[in-house]
Amino acid sequence: MFVTHAPQQRFKAFYDCLSNNDTATSSVVSSYILVKLAARCNLACTYCYWFRDKSVLDAPKRLTLEAEDAFLMRLGEHIRQHQLKTFFILFHGGEPLLFGAARFEALCAKLRELEAAHGCQLKLAVTTNGVLVDAHWASLLHRWNVGVTVSLDGPRAVNDSRRIGFRGQGSFDAILAGVRQLRAAGVEPGFLSVCEPSSDPRELVRFFAEDLGACDFDVLVPDATHEDTPASIAAFYIGLFDAWWDTWLDRGVRIRLLDTLVRGLLGEESRIESIGFGPNTTSTLATDGAIEPLDVLRTAGDSFTRTRIDVFHNGLQDIQSDPLWREVLQASLTLPKTCQSCQHRMTCGGGHVGQRWSAARRFDNPTVYCEDIKAILAHMSARLFADMTIVAPAGALEAVREAA
Asked: Which are the contacts of 164, defined by CB distance < 8 A and separation ≥ 6?
């Protein structure tokens, strides 16, 4: 089978909706929101994007009751208006479990009631550092069918140098205790790790696959903008790919970023927001009820993501009239000029939109990791296509000869 990169016209509907301010929001119906249950955390991770924006310390520590009630009302309105059959809610923080078990259970009960009343499946998930997970929390997450992703940066030495408490203590033991509680309750979590470029990628994948028995995890590129000088990630991800490709792929292990890059090299669309050409339509509910764009954009500066839109005065769809939300969508669908002749332009898509930011050019840049991504994809391409056998369908060669 011969594969090619699909052109940008695959997202023509998004371009069309952006061309007219009056109709822009009607073509992109929101079906996902990131809900900040807490604006504080019980860890002080060395690389956290959230607290790079000091304005988060002025926000309510937890999602207010008033904001919660208004959100539930707006969600019901949104589902009815757009006749949605599915809607995805990701609970986030800070550390979302600081919301408290009692309030969390009450919120889940209300969401499940709303789900039944409107005939719309609500897919609930939470990303947590796992430290607060005990038997009670684990049973709640299982009872209310909430998917769980645990943030863990790998083996003890790596994790405890970065995911630390406020007194500098490591979190590894507490996280693993939480994982054991989840599994005892019948909840199999996914795992998120953030790349530590100086660490051993082979040991990282071995740790997750063997020590934790995890078959599905991700290793995120560290958040950075062109105002930063991040360490090179090329050697780490090349080593990670080789370990995965040579040993762990055939054992059923999936590393989401690498899986997405392989699919991109084979001409498929990206299904994640962190890499690949495609629309970024994420919205975020803040603890005070504000509706904001992609929250990781806080790396661009204090209060960067603030809007005048909130659940008290606006519907969930109204975020799409916000200038920054529209700018992010436009950027995610517009390759920077320097990317347009790159052979990996569709696989990379210019990189994560947050990593394209600069004060001078805003999002009109390739990712700050551009040279690293090129090196990673060149290595992956060489290995991937060296192992690939291309089989033409019966009669294809004859058709080519006749056409010639």
From this structure: 43, 44, 45, 46, 170, 171
